[in-house]
Amino acid sequence: MMFLMFAMTTDAVGVVIPEVMKQFNLSMTAAGLLHYGPMVAIAAAGIFLGFLADKLGRKVTIVMGLTLFVLSSYMFLVGSSFGFFLALLMISGLAIGIFKTGALALIGDISTSTREHTSTMNNVEGFFGVGAIIGPFIVTYFLSRGVEWRYLYVVAATLSVVLIVLSLLAKYPKTTKSTQETINLKRTIKMIGDPYALGFSVAAFLYVSIETAIYVWMPTLIFGYEGDLLLWATYALPIFFVLRAGGRFLGAWVMQRYNWAAVLAVFSFLILLCFGLSVVGGSTVRVLLLPLSGLFMSVMYPTINSKGISCFPKVKGGAVSGIILFFTAAGAALGPLSMGIVSDAFNSQPIYGFMLATFYAGILFIGMMYNWIKEPTKKRLLQIEETEYHNNPN
User: Fold this and answer.
1) CATH for 255
2) 281 found inside a domain
3) How many Å apart are CA 227 and CA 284, to the nearest integer?
């Protein structure tokens, strides 16, 4: 539910931005701060505050993050300026970064094997996908009833109050702290240099850069389409979100039964194929394949995230979650920004931005193929399986 609520607010920004532009007479660049601002805040929280989940414990960190989110979200009722709303969104981004690192670390604590960790992560991210569908729907419904967009955050805050109560009542597994290592920011920064943390973080950055290309720039790319797939084009973005969400629940089943590295290699190739053919093909090809890529993207991020966390002892779960979250949020901000810059360099033609996204997809595919063939994580995952889960790998 935390992931669902988080997605409700962040993924609804595409519907909110046009309303804010009209309300405050803003340019696209200025209104776009509603997306980039919270992403920067989430990234900052991930890298600078991720260690709190290890130092203070999962429960304290989750409750602290949710409480800050509730306070900032209810404050939407008292403000009226764009600067005020942007500041609140950045505070909420900071809060999301805090409770999400705690939640990600908790997933590792409750898992009984690295494979179950990946399956659980796909299930949880499936609810994130559902939230990405619900959020824009709520805003659209509110607007149709004459209710301001900012009441979305009131709904999210109220839901978060319930989550705080549930978090306080829930029993958490114990995480044994190392007596030989101080848990602080310096420890997190040092972990960035670990090849496993860095490798999975770069993969997360590339993947999110590709994913955001769809929900930030695909509507612009296919705008004005009048071909045979007009109905599909009209609902292209919801179709993408539905396929991504459904695919993640399916991915929870798939990852329990098949080699995760092989699945990522195959799916990253299919994503590259969808983007590549969309770049060289016509408008009908783009309208068909770009939303379809959501099905292949579904298992990518949860698996990258879970395997990155699984390469470290549970006591470091918060810190490594924060590192990967930092690169995730950076990709969400810099990916679409770089596409916009490239498109503007060619007379604001979005197809050139998608060429860059295809390049990102190509690098991701090469990395996933290397991971499948060379198995660089096999030894580390076996070691963690034995020391942290006391269970033979499936």
Assistant:
1) 1.20.1250.20
2) yes
3) 7
